[in-house]
What we know:
Layout: H1 3-26, H2 61-64, H3 68-80, H4 82-104, E1 108-118, H5 125-131, E2 134-135, E3 138-139, E4 144-157, H6 162-228, H7 234-269, H8 299-302, H9 304-325, E5 330-341, E6 354-363, H10 369-437, H11 443-477
Antiparallel strand pairs: 1-4, 2-3, 4-5, 5-6
Helix pairs in contact: 3-6, 4-6, 6-7, 6-9, 6-11, 7-11, 9-10, 10-11
Membrane topology: Lipid-anchor
Subcellular location: Cell membrane
Family: Belongs to the outer membrane factor (OMF) (TC 1.B.17) family.
Amino acid sequence: MNKKAFFIFKNKRSxxxxxxxxxxxxxxxxxxxxxxxxxPLPENYKTAAExxxxxxxxxxxxxFFSDPYLNNLITKALENNQELNMTLQELQIAKNEVRxxxxxxxxxxxxxxxxxxxxxxxxxRAGAVEENLEVxxxxxxxxxxxxxxxxQAKWEVDIWNKLxxxxxxxVLRYLSTVEGRNFMVTNLVAEIANSYFELLALDxxxxxxxxxxDIQSNALRIVKLQKEAARVTELxxxxxxxxxxxxxxxxxEIQQKITETENRINFLVGRxxxxxxxxxxxxxxxxxxxINAGLPSQLLANRPDIKQAELxxxxxxxxxxxxxxxxxxxxxxxxxxxxxxxxxxxLLDTPQSLLYSIAGDIAAPLINRxxxxxxxxxxxxxxxxxVYNYEQTILNAYIEVSNQLxxxxxxxxxxxLKKEEVEALNRSINISNDLFRSARADYxxxxxxxxxxxxxxxxxxxxxxxxxxxxxxxxxxxxxxWN
Length: 483
């Protein structure tokens, strides 16, 4: 066999050996099934009165809430709330991550310039050559300067879509952050509205207490007159006096709750404690707005937290592909072009000082495959976790809507009954007072009747507040408030 034939045979054998090694390495690449989501959404809400595609979530919060003071608070909160503004910075971070990932699969080009000096020993090969070398009639300089200027380019050919998938995953996570911000807006709008209605309810409870203090004070004066007339004892006077003091103490408890509620709203709005503008008298005429729940399937489009979980799931699937692509060889291309000379006068001489190079290389993981396997396994686990999170988010959304639908119905019935209770107890106060004056009722009956009436009025206001909160929470559960 001649040398040429042997060389060809040797190259073929080396090539075949490389192919066999590559096949052996990547035939054992672990394979895992990507878990698909299966959101079990019913076709309708069991507690809904009727199935209708009309959905209140599409109504903008400025139209949903008619109170100008409340709308003004929400507007200021969307501008000044610190937590919301921090989320906007997270959006910018996620956007920058997309730019980073995009830059990874584009060629990188850089400008390189340098200068140096080198002294070779006289009795070395390089020194001996330089000793007897002349350039254009000049002796070779010693020591030898070196000047260079040029362009460098590097590019990893994305043959397995590893870099493109990483960029797509970054885009999905940016969109997920956008939905996270929308979800925060929904929660912020609902929290301000609930606190505002609570504040109105406390104002009305305070007014009820003040009116009851007047009523009980008048009753106390009557009892004192009756004691002077020897119709009742000192015990009756003490009991009535204690009741007045108890009711007056409630006034300060409610005032403290008002202060705390105002400050909670101020915190959400992003300002220091101050009076919250409101129309307390408007609470009496408040009627919960009718809410259209629509269809359960509309939650997928309206709820920002569901869309966020869906985008996170899509990104995690791409992460699995990126992790798997790390098992495969990567192809890189590098190129250089520029000028190099020992004398600045010759630096731009073409083609004498021109230099260029281009090279390609294939690199495959060999020793650290266990680390890559671990990353691949973790990516699969994260993907499965994202599936469960997506399904749980949908389940939670459906249950929230179902609970609020039931709550709205039950609170409406409860309010009607409590309203009748208040009317009955108001009549009983007048009756008990008349009977007490005519000595046909005991003073304890009067006290208990007044206390029951006060508690029933408190409960009526509390129930109305719960109705307003249920309306707000239903709007939030459907995914309204962020658009």
